[in-house]
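Quick start: what a row looks like.
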Amino acid sequence: MEQWQVIAGVVATANAVAFVQVWIDKRRAEAGRYRLSERRLIAPVLLGGLPGLLLAMRRFRHKTRKRSFQLKLAAATVGFVGAVVVAGRLWLGGRGG
């Protein structure tokens, strides 16, 4: 399996996990049950799951007004993008690019 295939698989899985977690948390909120932590909801973003999380937030109308969650999400996104930039430079640096 090629390296890009592994990375694509991780990102696809992170998006699916993020989407499902938001759906579960929304259902639990409606039922008045124990909820998933914000840390757990945001964790897939660190592996590229931002599109899945944003899609689920919009689809289920969940966590769209909570400013503190949005700020944590923005911080996680900046962290992910920074890690991708650093990893890209290290990878390309090792290839003479």
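That is the whole record. The radius of gyration is 16 Å. The chain has four helices and no strands.
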